[in-house]
Amino acid sequence: MLAKRIVVPLSVLTLGSAAAVVGVLNADAAAVAACSVTYTVPSQWNTGFTGDVKIKNTGGTSFDGWRLGFTFPSGQKLAGGWNGTWAQSGAAVTVTDAGWNRTIAPGGQVAVGFNGAWSGGNAIPTGFTVNGVTCGGPGVASPPAATSPAATSPAATSPAATRTATAAPTATKTATATKTATATPTATRTATATPTATAVKGAENCTDYAALVRGRFWVNNNVWGKADGTGSQCVWENGLSGDSLSWGTRWTWAGDNTKVKSYASSVLGWHWGWKVPSATTGLPVQLSAGKSVTTTWNFKVTQTTGNVMNVAYDLWLHDMAAPDWQNNPTDEVMVWLYKSGGAGPVGTKQATVTIGGATYDLYKGNIGWEVYSFVRTSNTSAATLDLTDFTDDLVARGWLAKSKYLSSVQAGTEIFTGSGQLDTTAYSVKIG
């Protein structure tokens, strides 16, 4: 059995648009020996924008704790951020490490992101500080042009996927887990759904963040970690049979196998905004309402090369009844059905539980919001579940409040590296 190092990948939301790279810090600084900072505006619309900031250690000594500072030059307002503790006072913005990402090794980097609001102008900051030391840079580029006033949310560029982890050959002080030996999914007796006949494959869409709306669902070509590797991803939807969606995705990704490149998924409900009206989706629903969330999912994974990946549900929860694009979740619950290449979740193992006749290892972590991952101990390619069984388990442990609202149910595949294809022959979700 191989031990694996849990390495938390970073949240990166990049669409290849303008970036501002600033230079090396004073090498004599005690707090930070040398670093560079990259500020990117990957998406901007009529009243808001998404910003990404990367801090890179270009020196020879590890950073042990960091605090980033910069000033908005055009009156921009911070709406919310991730992968750090964000605050704004006047025009000044600070971001403090989230704990799990406090250490930056030489040559390493951390990425943080935020949603903001702008009016009149959205100039990129030209000066940054890390632990009080000023960075100066060669100049900045302008953010992309705003979308039309009809745009209502940045759903395509928001941090869509859990920041999961992958195996490494050595053990560390973090929790260890058993490496999955096989990459081929195997059905179990608890997966009772029956696959439907193969649908005629729909047209592929290889545009980053393409959204294919079909009934209550939409398929998201989510490539939120693309900046950490090279490659591409395409999605398609084959239509509905009743309320059951057939869809698929194929991918080729190379690069750092500790960082997720993409999470192509079927989305029901919120995803940093709404592609389908809330009333149509049946979400959000408060946990205290006691409504069931039953789902059937039949899929096939075809690995062209060895992949570091998982196939998983991703549930998002809020502390409000009507979240929009600017409202980050408070909790995220993943249910892994399949994994290969040593992929593992954020956080540490807390328990082993049996739900719906299958056994799962339960992990708990935090990336700016709480993340709970139920990792199935044996792979399957078919499942029929009541997802409230998983949230009920967390409520019983005192980790999740029944006052929270389930705002989104997603189902897809997180890819770190490799080439392959996921075909979903039948996928459905019923609320209540």
From TrEMBL:
Protein name per Swiss-Prot or TrEMBL: Glycosyl hydrolase
Coiled-coil region(s): none
Lineage: Bacteria, Bacillati, Actinomycetota, Actinomycetes, Micromonosporales
GO biological processes: polysaccharide catabolic process
GO molecular function: cellulase activity; polysaccharide binding
Organism: Actinoplanes utahensis
Source organism superkingdom: Bacteria
Similarity comment text for this entry: Belongs to the glycosyl hydrolase 12 (cellulase H) family.
Pfam family, one: CBM_2
Region called Disordered, residue ranges: 142-195
